[in-house]
Amino acid sequence: MAGPEGAQEAVETFNKRLDAVQAREVNALASAYAPVNSAARKNAAALAKVAKAKDLKPWQVMRLGMMKDLEKQVAGEMKQFTDIATAQITQGQAAAVVLSQEMTEAAMAAGLPPGITPNMLARQGVTWSRLPREAFANFVGISADGAPLGKLLEPLGPDTVRAVREGVGEGIALGYSPRKTADLVSLKSGMGLTRALAISRTETLRAHREASRLQYAANPDLIKGYRRMAAKDDRVCMACIVLDGNLYGNDQALDAHVNCRCAIVPEMVTYGDLGMTIPEPPKPEGALGWFNSQSPAVQKKMMGAGKYKAFNAGAIDYFDFVKKTRHPVWGTTAVVTPIKEIVTDMGGPLTQWLAHEAAKEAAIKVATKKTIKKAKPKLPSTEAEVIPKRREVTNVSSRFKGPADDLAKWEDAPDDLSRVSNVQILNATPEGQELGIAIESWASGGNEAHRRGATKWLSGSNDLIEEGERLGAQIAEAVSVSPPLNVKTHRGFIFNGKSIDEVEEIYKVGAKTDVQISSFSIDTDIAERFAGRGIDAANNTSVVLNVEPGAKGLNVSPVSRYLSEKERILHGRFEVIKVHREIGGYSPKDMLGKPVPSVLHVDIRQINNFVREGR
Known about the structure:
It is built from 17 helices and 13 strands. By secondary structure, it is an alpha+beta fold. Strands 8, 9, 10, 11, 12 and 13 form a 6-stranded mixed beta sheet that branches. It has a 3-stranded antiparallel beta sheet with strand order 2-1-3.
């Protein structure tokens, strides 16, 4: 097997050997920690027995000489443990670096296009550059922040002593037996081992990835970058699932979280890079494809019950699972967004949405019980069921997004359209069959136009494009009188028929550009997803416009059919203030296309408003 599938298979093979290295570390650290746990259990039980016999209060126990002796013993055992852990993790890092040298060369050879071999390229002057072992010295015995590894483990001693004190005090305060108090102390003191194991895995895998990345960077004629590869099992986090397949430059460190098992697969030169007009080999299945093939039970376990429910209801999407944060040691990390921080596509907190759904379900159960008592038995029928006809409505919610029959889902929303305060012309479907119109009631007649457009859309009318053209001037004026936005907005698109150099020539700093009524997003990931569509076509360039705060625009998310796009409508003349290229655009292939190799980012600021008739 050759090409991208071959490179991924080679990396997966070496990952199994790396797993064996980590297994040895785990066993060694667990054995080294046993004396700490044993000392904590034995002495805590004895201390609790004395406290019970003398009916001592927790504060009195903390002053006993026995407590001081316990603390000293645990501190001494932890000092020995951290010394052993430092040596073990350093040894694991060294083994991981050696594996990285073997893995990178094997993945390179396996990842070349079918029929192309390293020897063939060597005859053309393109050879594999193997770095000396001295180049990887900074990855062994050193943590991610550049400090000696021992410094990262040093706090474990005082923290474990503190945990033992808390366990003793809590057990005595709750009146636990000596044995139960010892169990509690053992549980709390185990945090030292848990954190040591997390450091061990994180630093060992980081050393392997960073050494691999350094080797990739030493061979730019063969390796253009690397792709993130998430593990495919039910222990992997959803952040890694969503980010799987992202393309990174060789100068970019992977934004891995603590305990992250993601690997980096080389992005090799292709037939096209070699000047050959041969169809490229297929890409391997990504983690999102794997996840989508899993049973509902597995998906629910991995997402969490609340997020799973919201995802399947369309209240959140894949990108809501990912949050970028800054770790003091390991730098930028991609983690799973806590449920309390997620905002639904309707604009409210996910926790509020879940509470509302739970209340609705409870109400339905009560109503169902009452209905069952009165319901008549259903007679057997051989006739086909009658599908209810779409009905026209006059009062619709500001959150409408589907057939009128679905309005019951939002019965809590206001029925009076005069309360709607946003403007949007929704994009036509690929078939051009419908265009949703939602006009802000900022002037007399606006409410009527909104009501008429919404009613026609919900009843399946197809004449809305004409209606949209008639109302275009009103929308442009509504944007122009809107208050300035206090956030950045972004728009991603494809510039057809021009190379990235040609497009960069157009968007020079100081250049002026007119933006017609257009959809922007406050989320850069959304913009880059749209910049990924059509990237495989020849001479297409991905562009993301980044608008500085202060531009006039309307928040249309509450009335959008595409709530996850976090949409704002902008319009006016803008000035280019900064232009830069970004390697490794973001566009999961299961949604809008393949990841973008590079994106031209154009930072602009609004300099004036304008209104165009009919658009």
